[in-house]
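Lecture 7 notes: from sequence to structure.
We start with the chain below.
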Amino acid sequence: MGITAHVYQVYIAADAARVWQAITDSEWTRQYFHSTQFVAPPEAGQPYRTVMPDGSGAVDGMVEELTPPDGERPGRFVQTWHVLYDAAMACAGAGAVGRSTQKIEPPLGGQSTPARP
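Predicted structure tokens for the same chain:
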């Protein structure tokens, strides 16, 4: 089976540091990512696990890169992705591991970009 790639570009009305916090800090992931949270803060080169509000597994994998944005340098959060929240997908094992790369860039011109509907 071939590799499937999906590329999404999202504009968020917030600066890069705040978006970074929203994808790496459980206080924010609980609000914006299906109420899930990291068991421990993500760390480059380390496995991670996220859980649902009842403590059951949501996703696990490896944090491959964790580079926060700094000035004009984009941030990158690269992680493997193994679904735990769906029994059929979880049973697929290592063959069902995906990879997610989130690149956080400052808006063009240094201004916050309004969110698009």
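Points to note: The chain is about 20% helix and 30% strand. The chain has a mean pLDDT of 85.
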